[in-house]
Design brief:
Aspartate Aminotransferase, domain 1; about 475 residues; Aspartate Aminotransferase, domain 2; 3 domains; alpha/beta; globular; 14 helices; single chain; Ornithine Decarboxylase, Chain A, domain 4; four-stranded antiparallel β-sheet
Length: about 475
């Protein structure tokens, strides 16, 4: 069976998508036959890299919707936007401040531009074992300590919906005349309803990247890059967009962006009122849970979060007799609900304005049904994903490591060696180890623990995850 046939077969089954893309395969948001509108740069349809007509008008509409100074289409996803922004806002060899929980595309941008990262770690949450926000105070401390930092790169919201105090961070960054780049891939829907936090454009960030396909009705791979400050050279942004995006952009993807923006300009109040009420009803039903725990938006102050995006549904299995992987499998096999992500301690679901009443009802009934079958157990002391026992020792830059002679060795023999590759937990694609960092005993214990738990690790050299690339 080929991919097309498998997709068709899957589309006819009754699985409900609690995952991206945000259109949720909802027929009410569908497009016409894609073959009938798949074209290239023909007369009257403009050119993305030299937009003067219909594509320029579309990008101006997107800027109007988000109240952004400049907005450009991304048809290579947020990855293209992040590579573009980093290349345009920092010069080769610059020092940049980077949240350690940034997506791997940020690390690739650092590698390509031979930048020197100064890492800042998110605050840890022990209630749900997820990454919290980035401390504004820590941002300022690092800016004072490293006066030559040229760019700040953060992720907000996180995969789980935790939002950092971007207004405060923006003020601090601008006081030091350093541009702030926010990877807001998971927040393209923010700022359109009082029940959702403001987006980072409203909060003062200089560059903001949005993945439309994650939380809004647009095709996979579509996004936006917003530039709102003279601290960033917009002409360089356009130059790098031409480098990192194809010279033959898909008109299907761009039309998908256009339809999404037009939909929000015309109907966002109606759509978001319905969506917010749907989420409120879901969270109200979840208050009946006895063993499973939900990250409730109205409890975020108890967790020490600045703000939280209620579109993300985090279901914790801590202190129950099942793992997150078991819950994920039960939802998939017994209730035909496909979730977005799983860890040892929780399962994550993603929602959007395209979710149906029936879909969220199915999830709530499934969770209530599973909850009745579970037993509560005492907390077992142990290491959690957000526990940071040590910062990996930086030995050399990632690009220097890449140019060194390397070998693949058993993971069991790698303690003390210098990594030649990234090691990620995927999703969400945040590196545990970056090339040029020393492999510690603590990190190896983490890797073995994640492997025992059945989590997906990328970057090891074989399917069984027993080998790693190191510097000779």
């Amino acid at each position: 069976m080929n991919l097309y046939d498998k997709l068709i077969e899957y589309s006819r089954d009754d699985y409900y998508p609690m995952h991206m893309p945000g259109h949720k395969r909802n027929a009410a948001f569908s497009m016409t036959n894609p073959y009938s509108i798949d074209i290239t740069e023909i007369e009257g349809f403009d050119n993305l890299h030299h937009a003067e007509g219909i594509l320029l008008e579309g990008m101006e509409q997107a800027a109007k919707l988000y109240n952004s100074k400049h907005t450009n289409y991304l048809i290579g996803g947020s990855t293209a936007g992040l590579l573009t922004a980093i290349g345009a806002a920092a010069n080769k060899g610059d020092k940049v401040m980077v949240a350690r929980n940034c997506h791997k595309a940020v690390y690739h941008g650092i590698y390509l531009n031979e930048l020197h990262p100064v890492y800042i770690y998110p605050q840890a949450d022990t209630h749900f074992n997820i990454n919290g926000g980035i401390s504004p105070e820590k941002i300022e401390e690092l800016l004072i300590k490293h006066k030559d930092i040229k760019l700040i790169i953060l992720t907000s919201p996180t995969y789980e919906g935790v939002i950092s105090d971007i207004p405060s961070i923006s003020r601090i960054a601008h006081k030091h005349k350093v541009p702030l780049l926010v990877d807001e891939a998971h927040g393209a829907h923010l700022g359109f309803h009082t029940g959702f936090p403001d987006n980072s454009i409203q909060a003062g960030a200089d560059i903001v990247i949005h993945s439309l396909h994650k939380t809004l009705p647009a095709f996979t791979q579509t996004g936006l890059i917003h530039v709102n400050s003279d601290l960033v050279d917009y002409e360089k942004i356009k130059k790098y967009l031409g480098i990192y995006q194809t010279s033959s952009p898909s008109y299907l993807l761009m039309a998908s962006i256009d339809r999404c923006i037009t939909l929000l300009l015309d109907k966002r109040k109606e759509l978001f009122d319905r969506y917010y009420n749907l989420l409120q009803n879901f969270y109200d039903h979840m208050k009946a849970l006895k063993n499973l725990k939900i990250l409730f938006p109205d409890n975020i102050k108890n967790y020490g979060f600045y703000k939280f995006d209620p579109s993300k549904i985090t279901i914790s299995v801590k202190n129950t007799d099942i793992s997150g992987i078991k819950l994920y499998d039960m939802l998939l096999k017994e209730y035909k609900i496909q979730m977005e992500m799983v860890t040892k301690d929780y399962v994550l679901g993603m929602t959007s304005i395209c979710d149906t009443t029936e879909g969220l009802h199915r999830l709530s009934e499934a969770l209530l049904d599973i909850d009745k079958k579970l037993e509560s157990i005492s907390a077992i002391p142990g290491k959690h994903l957000t526990d940071k026992t040590e910062v990996p020792e930086w030995v050399m830059s990632s690009w220097k490591a890449d140019n060194c002679l390397q070998e693949s060795i058993p993971l069991t023999l790698s303690e003390g060696r210098i990594s030649g590759d990234y090691v990620y937990l995927y999703p969400p694609g945040i590196p545990l180890l970056v090339p040029g960092e020393r492999i510690s005993k603590s990190l190896l214990e983490d890797i073995y623990s994640y492997q025992r738990e059945g989590l997906h690790l990328q970057g090891l050299q074989d399917e069984k995850g027993q080998y790693i690339k190191v510097i000779l």
